[in-house]
Amino acid sequence: MSRRVTLKPLAAPDRPLWDALAHLYAYDFSEMFDIVLDSDGTFPAHECFDMVWTDPDRHARLIFVGGEIAGFGIVRWYDDAFEVEQFLVLRKFRRCGVGRRAAALLFDAFQGSWIVDQVPENAAAIQFWSSVIEEYTDGKASHHVTPYPHQKFET
Description:
The protein is of the alpha+beta class. Helices cover 30% and strands 30% of the residues. The chain is built from 4 helices and 7 strands. It has a 7-stranded mixed β-sheet, covered by helices on one side. Strand 6 and strand 7 form a beta hairpin.
C-alpha cells in the first residue's frame, strides 16, 4: 500500500461515520456470533461505541489511507494497561499492510503496558495480532492462550 496510513482522534462531527462503522463492525462479527439484525436493517453496536464519547479511559481513532476512511481502533485503559478493545480495517484495505501500520501507530500513541485480547472464534484476528505484535516488539511480547488468546508487551 503506497498511500499513507494515519490515525485521527474521534471528534463530535464524526458521529454519523462512527455509528456507521459500529454497524459494519457488528456485521463482520455476525459470521462468528449470533448477532441479529435490528428491525431497521442495521446491526446493534456494542456498548463501547457509545462509551467512547463519555468514558475518559476510552480513546477512539479513525484510520485513514490517504483521505479515505479505512477503519478504526478503540483503546481503553483497563487494569493498569492499555487494551485494544475493538479494531476494524475495512475489507478493501485488508491484507495490504494497513492494519499492521494502524496498529503500530496506536501502540506508538499510547506508551506503557499493553494487552491485546482475541476471541477464540476469530482465527484471522489471532493470526493478525500475533504477527503484528511479534514484529512490533521484535519478539519480546508474552503470548498466552488461557482463558483466551492474548499478548502482553511494553511500548
